[in-house]
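Action item from last week, closing it out:
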Amino acid sequence: MLLYVDDMLITFKNKSTIEKLKGQMKDLGEAKRILGMEIERHGEGKVSLTQKAYLQKVLQKFNIGSDTKSVSVSLALHFKLSAKMSPKTVDERECMSYMPYGIIVVNSLIYA
């Protein structure tokens, strides 16, 4: 069970504990977002996080219209990305500024 109270997300397995806590705090209802991600509920006890709003902003930023087709593409299992691979020095960042547009889009999507 998730509860959103005064900019805090509180979770307990026991619903009675949440009810007791709610009596002591202002109830803002069920949480809808956390850390920029949307919270979707799928029945009793099932929750997922999505980044639809972020992805919409990425598409809008790069003028990719809603009329484009979406496809599912899996990365190869051996393909690993990490923060260590990002540019660290001014020279590396400058070099990255000349990278093709597609790389920027892909990097935005990898962030998601």
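Closing note: Residues 2-50 form one domain.
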